[in-house]
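Can you please make up a protein's amino acid sequence together with its fold in token form to help me picture the idea?
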Amino acid sequence: MKWNDYYERFWDWAESTQISRISTLTDFTSSAEVAEIANAFFDEKNAARLVKRAMQNGIRFTPAEIIELSGCLTEEVFNKVICSRRGQFTAEQYEELEGLCFNEELLENVAKADGIHRETDDLPFDSEIAIVQPERKGPGFLAALFGLASHAGSGRTYPGRCMGNCSNCPAHYGYRYGRWYYGHHHSHGCEFGGNDCSGKP
């Protein structure tokens, strides 16, 4: 069935007919129309089927259409739509995309390809971070000194689990001076349990 016929008759059909005709579609002509119809489906799996069918027939979506599709597709298909996009994201569109896509590697690739500067590019990163207490000023530093002294006096080392004192958590993977390099909260990826004090990452 040709896309123009499907698009014109879509609203007159029962939902079961709308869904059953997806697998027969050919000759797609408009990415904007596909995005419009995809958003009309209540089930993201049906919307994803339609978008995948359109992509198999050569349709590529613009950044504006991709943002429009974000609420109606499965994560897997949404990521594929981003990878095969038509055109480049503006800085404003990319900022919106960061709140819609949860694939950090994909976001990084889009930023590089589209010449977008990310805030995380300004943050330091060391792939070989030693587990040592970072130097702090003020009461936080004094508290750390007292803590180290008590551990040294008792012959104990850091227990390797969350102590519930996240502001003084030993520096570890990606975490320095009370923040993650990529803007996450302490509980994100913390091998000591993070803020939930579970002792599990």
Remarks:
- The chain has nine helices and two strands.
- The CA atoms of residues 20 and 46 lie 10 Å apart.
- The chain has a mean pLDDT of 78.
